[in-house]
Specification:
Shape: elongated
CATH architecture of the largest domain: Roll
Largest sheet: 10 strands, antiparallel
Strand content: 25-35%
Number of strands: 24
CATH topology of the largest domain: Nuclear Transport Factor 2, Chain: A
Amino acid sequence: MPKKKYYYHSYYYTYSNKKRRAKKIKMIVGGLFILLLFTGTFCFKILPLFSTKQNSETIPTSEEILKLATDETEEVPEILAEENSFQQEKEKELITINGNLQAGDTLYESLIKEGVPAAEILNLQEKVKSVVDFSYLPVGSEYSLKYSPEGKVTEFIYKPNPIDIYCIDIPASDSEDLKVVKEEISRETVHFEGVIKSSLYESMLECANSPQLALQIADIFAWQIDFLTECREGDTFKILVEKQYRGDFYRWGNILAAEYEGELLSKHTAIFFTDPTGHTDYYTEEGKSLRKAFLRAPLNYKYISSYFSKNRLHPILRIWRPHLAIDYAAPTGTPVSTIGDGTVIYVGWDNGYGNYIKIRHPNNYITAYGHLSRFATGLKNGQKVKQGEIIGYVGATGLATGSHLDFSISKNGEKVDFLKIKLPAAFSIDPQYKAQFKEAKDRLLNDLEKNRGLDLTLGSDNLRSINLEKE
């Protein structure tokens, strides 16, 4: 009987094989970890997080930090110097043109002669039209223009008179906003007072050597005083006016407060006030506007050539029909102003009226202006206009036999005779601004009554000019 063979299974081989495999895995993982550690340390400057010891050699001392900061500080002037040098080199490349407009000159022609491309001049005109009207520049206006060798204008400085200077930076892109800076001018408040001898005009000329101030006073009190018929010898006046100057040149600004008292008149006081919304006007001491809602006429005219009528023979059509307007005869080009604050509701051509404008005013009034030769620059539908603002110019467009303005006014949709209506008063001070108005009024009236500062006698014992110190 054969013997059974017994086989013994070796567990030693299996165990040693697993041990070697685990050792290999540990070596691979350890190698990868070391590789990642060195890669992070040298490439990304990541410090090992597992180290519990800090190498004092790698930590900068306070002296080293201070030295590093000093070195960087010393480098700043060098960097700034390099930037300034670059800016100066850039400015050297720019071409500068300075000019002065004489009678008959235009800015366009002047710049063309200097070699500025026509397209760039027109582009400049379009960009600065909100600040400078190229079509009307006063004789003597000074200008300075900088442009690159490629013909691109970068800066435009405009000086329409010896006092005002506008510096305009022209952006390279149309999407950027225009940067306009008006140089500051010196200002002071001046006090004048006097006694009427023959007329306000002559007295103000003797007192302040300024017919402009006489016209300003007459305009302020236009609805209260007729200075042609009501002004009497012995009447007195006082004014506070802003003086604006640059160097030896000066001009008169707004009259800030005025007082007139006469033989035939009671005492009249005017306070100039600007509310927080930017609205400016002259008010009584009680805060009521001195002006009416409408001007007495929309222009300076020669005479009225045709009145408001229900039945008039038309000079061209030769038929009888209503003429519900007033025709003011005036030379072509005479400025036409809106008679009151309002909104433009139509500007364009209207058959028989030619160039035509309609403006809506508060309290359901609408005014219309016809036969204009042209409109004011930029006038458009929806635009807000202020009383006295120029909206167009007299002409003879449409059905017209001569140069005149056809002016009409409607109340609640019905045309009325402008010469016969009772003109409404302008708005008084808004109740929410009464505190600010009272503060401004008290200060101005206090200055008007005080005779502080330098007393300059000008040719008469009762005429004084007093410069008020700035507070």
